């Protein structure tokens, strides 16, 4: 089952800078195994920042490890967990 929503959200950056009413349209979908590498890379970027700025015990390479890949794969494919992907809409 894929959950797909069209959501209109005000873009806070544009509103703050230009004080206009433009909206950012996004599509939220349940992640698929095709999204695995992107999820891993994004998580590595987050963990790198967390490691550098807040907690040196966080391993930023875990996301790209075999164990990390298995963890994210299980979140995508398991019936007791899920991952979502947000895409910019038209």
Structural domain count? 1
Number of helices: 3
Main beta sheet: 3 strands, antiparallel
- The H-and-E topology, N to C, reads as EHEHHE
Given helix and strand content, the structural type is alpha+beta
Strand content: 15-25%
Helicity range: 40-55%
Q: Unreliable stretches, pLDDT < 50, 5 or more residues?
A: 1-19
Mean of residue pLDDT values: 79
Strand order of the largest sheet: 1-2-3
Radius of gyration: 16 Å
* Strand segment tally: 3
Overall form:
flat
Span of the ends, CA to CA:
23 Å
In brief:
The chain has 90 residues and is an alpha+beta fold.
Kindly describe this structure.
- The protein is 41% helix and 21% strand.
- The protein is α+β, with helices and mostly antiparallel strands and 90 residues long.
- It has one domain (5-88).
- The chain has a 3-stranded antiparallel β-sheet with strand order 1-2-3.
Describe how the helices and strands are arranged:
Elements: E1 5-10, H1 12-18, E2 23-30, H2 36-53, H3 66-77, E3 84-88
Antiparallel strand pairs: 1-2, 2-3
Key words describing this protein structure:
single chain; 90 residues; alpha+beta; three-stranded antiparallel beta sheet; 3 strands; 21% strand; disordered N terminus
């Amino acid at each position: 089952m894929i959950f797909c929503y069209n959501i209109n959200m005000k873009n806070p950056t544009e509103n703050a800078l230009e004080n206009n009413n433009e909206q950012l349209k996004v599509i939220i979908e349940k992640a698929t195994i095709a999204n695995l590498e992107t999820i891993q890379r994004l998580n590595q970027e987050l963990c790198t920042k967390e490691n550098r700025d807040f907690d040196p015990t966080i391993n930023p390479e875990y996301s790209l490890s075999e164990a990390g890949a298995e963890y994210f794969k299980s979140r995508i494919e398991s019936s007791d967990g899920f991952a979502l992907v947000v895409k910019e809409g038209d």
